[in-house]
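Key result, reporting period 2: structure in, sequence out.
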């Protein structure tokens, strides 16, 4: 187990627009003061989305709880139609053998709850597109953050 004292500093950001709250007061608010739509959550600074990166937030059951506008475009789905669906409906490891991607992805995400991972993924069933994905814990509520950047 990693020593929690040595974990990366936590960054707060909006689960919808990805912006960091502009003031200390805004950072204490549960709902994003910039877009008014997302809930403000925390993740390690090495994991949290940087400007322009798309991201997906899933819960401990690996069901989708939120995604950024960029991720909506990448996955060709709107947030209301995406929430509560399993992450394997949307992403698979880019180098997975046929039929083994789900298990592989679930294993990586579950492992990422204790230490962040990176892997290359593609939208499920989409063979021409690849993303580098950073996967790790975020919250509250406890879940995993998947940040997609183009490779
Ligand atoms: Zn926001």
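The corresponding designed sequence is given below.
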């Amino acid at each position: 187990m990693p020593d929690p004292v040595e974990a990366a500093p936590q960054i707060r950001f909006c689960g919808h627009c990805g912006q960091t709250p502009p003031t200390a007061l805004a950072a204490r608010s549960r709902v994003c003061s910039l877009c008014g739509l997302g809930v403000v959550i925390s993740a390690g600074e090495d994991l949290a989305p940087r400007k322009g990166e798309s991201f997906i937030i899933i819960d401990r059951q690996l069901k989708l709880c939120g995604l950024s506008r960029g991720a909506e475009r990448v996955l060709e789905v709107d947030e209301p139609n995406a929430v509560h669906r399993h992450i394997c409906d949307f992403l698979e490891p880019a180098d997975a053998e046929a039929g083994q991607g789900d298990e592989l992805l679930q294993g990586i995400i579950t492992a990422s709850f204790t230490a962040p991972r990176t892997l290359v993924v593609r939208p499920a069933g989409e063979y021409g597109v690849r993303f580098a994905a950073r996967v790790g814990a975020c919250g509250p509520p406890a879940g995993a953050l998947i940040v997609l950047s183009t490779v």
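The first strand starts at residue 10 and ends at 14. Residues 14, 16-17, 19, 32, 34-35, 37-38 surround zinc ion (CB under 6 Å). This case is discussed further under Risks and Mitigation.
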